[in-house]
C-alpha cells in the first residue's frame, strides 16, 4: 500500500532542487526544501498524538508554512480542514466542534479566544503566523527533515471543506485522496501544464480554487508558483512578467482591466489565464482579449466536486459558457426527479466522476438527498448544454450568492438581520456588482411603529459575520413580495434592484 495523494502530489519532487515557491521578499523555496519543512511539521503532529484519520482545523494567513501544513497532513494521513480567515470565533466553534478536530492551528493573535474552544473539545492548539513564526514552526524546527509517509488508500479522506446550505447549517464535504489527485492530474493534461510553468498565485489557500486547483496542478506538473499573500494590484502587475500562467476570480481580471499598466506587452509571454469561482461577464471576456490578446479560459467546479467542466485549451473558449465536461466526468441536465432533459433545455446540473466527494460529514440524510445512489451529485445549479456541447450556467435553484469568488448563504445573514431591534423580517439577495460579480443586498421590513437603525444593524452584522458576508446596503420595504403559498419571491427583489450597483 502507498499514499496516493502524497505520492502523486508531493513525493514526485523528492530531491529536486528546482524552485517551487517564489516569495515576494525574494526568497525561493525548492521542491525538496518544501518537503523538508512539511516533514518536520508531520513529526510535530505525531508527537502531539494525532493518528491517521484525525482532523486538523486550520485558520491561518497564507504562507509557505501554511501550505507545508497541508502537505504534512497528507503525508501523516490526517484530514486537512482549511477555514476562511475571515470567520469569527463564533463561526469557527461550529466547524471545529462538528469536525471533531484533534488539532487547531491558528494565528497567534486568535490563540487566546480559541483556547477556550479547544479546551472544551479536548483538542490541541498550535499557532502559525503569516510570517511563518508560531509555536508549530518553533517545534518543527527541531524535528528531522525526513518523515516516513503513512500508508493510505485512495478512498481515505484527505480533506474537509465546509459549505453551507440555504438553512445556514454548514456541511463538511468529505474529499478523498482520489478526488483530489485525479482532478489535478486531469487538469494538468487539459490545460497543458509542465515543469516550465510559473503560476502567479494570488488566491487564498482555504478554498478549492487556490488549494486544490492552483496548488495541486502546479505540484503534479512539477512547476513553480509566485506565491503572493493576496491579490494586490501593484504586486500582480510587478510579478506578471515572471509568470507563464495565472488563475483568478473575475474580480482579479476586472481590476487588471482598470489599470493602464495592464497591456499586451505586459502579458506577451503569458500562456494561460484561468477564471473560476464566480461567473465571468461576457464583456469582461471581450475587454480582456482586446487589451491583452488573451482569451480567458473559464471553468466550472464546486466544493463537493472539484472541477467538472472547462473551456478548451485548444479551440473556442466561448464566453458565457464553462466549456465541456472534463475527461472522466459526466454532466447531465435533469428535471427534479433526475430524468435527463433533451439537449438545450434548462434543468438542474448533475455530475458524476472520480472528482465527486464522498458525502457530508455526519449528515447521512443530507448526503442521500444530494448524492444519488448511481453516483450523480445534484449540484443545485441550473444550466443547459447547447448544440455544440458547451455547458452554460443560467442560475441557481438555491439562493446562493457568489461575491468575489466566495459563497454566501442568505439564510445565515437573514437570521442576524431578523434578530435586530425594529426588524420584523428580512430577505437577503445577490445583485450584480461590476467588481465582485455579485454583492449582498439586505431587504428589511420594520415592525409596526418601529424605525430600524440601518447603521446599528450593519454594525451588529459586522460583529457576528465575516466581512465578505456583510450587506453592502440595506433597503427598507413595507412588505416582502410573496406568492400564493406565502413564499418570498426573491426573483422579484433581484429584478427590482439588479441595477443598484451597476447603473
What secondary-structure arrangement, pairings included, does this model have?
Blueprint: H1 4-9, E1 19-22, E2 28-30, H2 31-48, E3 55-59, H3 64-76, E4 79-82, H4 89-99, E5 103-106, H5 111-120, E6 124-127, H6 135-140, E7 157-164, E8 170-176, H7 177-191, E9 198-201, H8 208-221, E10 224-227, H9 233-239, E11 245-248, H10 250-257, H11 264-267, E12 272-275, H12 282-292, E13 297-302, E14 306-310, E15 324-325, E16 330-334, E17 347-352, E18 359-360, H13 364-370, E19 377-385, E20 391-396, E21 401-403, E22 406-408, H14 410-418, E23 423-433, E24 437-446, H15 454-464, E25 473-477, H16 490-497
Parallel strand pairs: 1-10, 3-4, 3-5, 5-6, 9-10, 9-11, 11-12, 12-13, 24-25
Antiparallel strand pairs: 1-2, 7-8, 8-18, 13-14, 14-15, 16-17, 17-19, 19-20, 21-22, 23-24
Task: Jot down its keywords.
16 helices, globular, 503 residues, four-stranded parallel beta sheet, nine-stranded mixed beta sheet, alpha/beta, 25% strand
Summarize the structure.
With 503 residues, this protein is an alpha/beta fold.
Amino acid at each position: 500500500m502507498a499514499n496516493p495523494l502524497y505520492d502523486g502530489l508531493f513525493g514526485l519532487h523528492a530531491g529536486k532542487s528546482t524552485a517551487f515557491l517564489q516569495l515576494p521578499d525574494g526568497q525561493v523555496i525548492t521542491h525538496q526544501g518544501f518537503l523538508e519543512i512539511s516533514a518536520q511539521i508531520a513529526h510535530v503532529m505525531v508527537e502531539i498524538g494525532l493518528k491517521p484519520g484525525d482532523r486538523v482545523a486550520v485558520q491561518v494567513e497564507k504562507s509557505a508554512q501554511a501550505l507545508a501544513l497541508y502537505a504534512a497532513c497528507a503525508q501523516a494521513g490526517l484530514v486537512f480542514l482549511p477555514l476562511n480567515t475571515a470567520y469569527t470565533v463564533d463561526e469557527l466553534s461550529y466547524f471545529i466542534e462538528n469536525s471533531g478536530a484533534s488539532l487547531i492551528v491558528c494565528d497567534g493573535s486568535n490563540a487566546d479566544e480559541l483556547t477556550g474552544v479547544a479546551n472544551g473539545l479536548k483538542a490541541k492548539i498550535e499557532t502559525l503566523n503569516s510570517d511563518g513564526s508560531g509555536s508549530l514552526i518553533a517545534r518543527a524546527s527541531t524535528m528531522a527533515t525526513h518523515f516516513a509517509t503513512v500508508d493510505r488508500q485512495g478512498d481515505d479522506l484527505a480533506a474537509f471543506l465546509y459549505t453551507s446550505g440555504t438553512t445556514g447549517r454548514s456541511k463538511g464535504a468529505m474529499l478523498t485522496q482520489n478526488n483530489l489527485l485525479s482532478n489535478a492530474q486531469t487538469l494538468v493534461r487539459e490545460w497543458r501544464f509542465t515543469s516550465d510553468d510559473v503560476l502567479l498565485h494570488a488566491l487564498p489557500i482555504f478554498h478549492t480554487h487556490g488549494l486544490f486547483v492552483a496548488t495541486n496542478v502546479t505540484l503534479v506538473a512539477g512547476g513553480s508558483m509566485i506565491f503572493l499573500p493576496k491579490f494586490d494590484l501593484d504586486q500582480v502587475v510587478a510579478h506578471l512578467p515572471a509568470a507563464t500562467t495565472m488563475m483568478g476570480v473575475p474580480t482579479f481580471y476586472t481590476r487588471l482591466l482598470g489599470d493602464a499598466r495592464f497591456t499586451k506587452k505586459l502579458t506577451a509571454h503569458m500562456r494561460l489565464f484561468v477564471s473560476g469561482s464566480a461567473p465571468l461577464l461576457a464583456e469582461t471576456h471581450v475587454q480582456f482579449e482586446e487589451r491583452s490578446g488573451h482569451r480567458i479560459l473559464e471553468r466550472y467546479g464546486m466544493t463537493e466536486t472539484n472541477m467538472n467542466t472547462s473551456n478548451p485549451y485548444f479551440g473556442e473558449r466561448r464566453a458565457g459558457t464553462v466549456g465541456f465536461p472534463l475527461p472522466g466526468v459526466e454532466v447531465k441536465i435533469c428535471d427534479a426527479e433526475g430524468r435527463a432533459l433533451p439537449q438545450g433545455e434548462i434543468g438542474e446540473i448533475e455530475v458524476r466522476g472520480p472528482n465527486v466527494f464522498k458525502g457530508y460529514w455526519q449528515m447521512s440524510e443530507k448526503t442521500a438527498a444530494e448524492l444519488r445512489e448511481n453516483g450523480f451529485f445534484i449540484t443545485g445549479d441550473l444550466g443547459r448544454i447547447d448544440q455544440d456541447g458547451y455547458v452554460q450556467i443560467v442560475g441557481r435553484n438555491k439562493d446562493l450568492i457568489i461575491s468575489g469568488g466566495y459563497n454566501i448563504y442568505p439564510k445565515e445573514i437573514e437570521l442576524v438581520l431578523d434578530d435586530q431591534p425594529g426588524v420584523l423580517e428580512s430577505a437577503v439577495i445577490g445583485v450584480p456588482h461590476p467588481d465582485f460579480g455579485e454583492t449582498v443586498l439586505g431587504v428589511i421590513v420594520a415592525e409596526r411603529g418601529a424605525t430600524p437603525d440601518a447603521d446599528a444593524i450593519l454594525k451588529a452584522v459586522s460583529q457576528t459575520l465575516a466581512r465578505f458576508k456583510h450587506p453592502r446596503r440595506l433597503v427598507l420595504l413595507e412588505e416582502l413580495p410573496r406568492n400564493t403559498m406565502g413564499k418570498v419571491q426573491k426573483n422579484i427583489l433581484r429584478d427590482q434592484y439588479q441595477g443598484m450597483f451597476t447603473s
